[in-house]
Amino acid sequence: MRVVLLQLREGNASIETIVRSLAKSDGRWALATLACVVGYSLVDKVGMERFARASELSPALRGPLYFALENAMA
What we know:
It is a single chain. It contains 4 helices and no strands. By secondary structure, the protein is mostly helical. It has one domain (2-73). It is elongated and about 55 Å long. The protein starts with a helix and ends with a helix.
């Protein structure tokens, strides 16, 4: 959002130009990438929160174990 506001403030683009650029394939790719990053971030936060509830593991092991499990799935 800051990039859009900066472009509008600098006079480099209008709202119509920005909307038209999002309709192009590279704009759609950027939005799809953004959606994937946001989705991953939300899933990661929920997973870490649920993993933190595990009383069977000591708190010192939760972070490294979560990191290892996450990288093993990638």
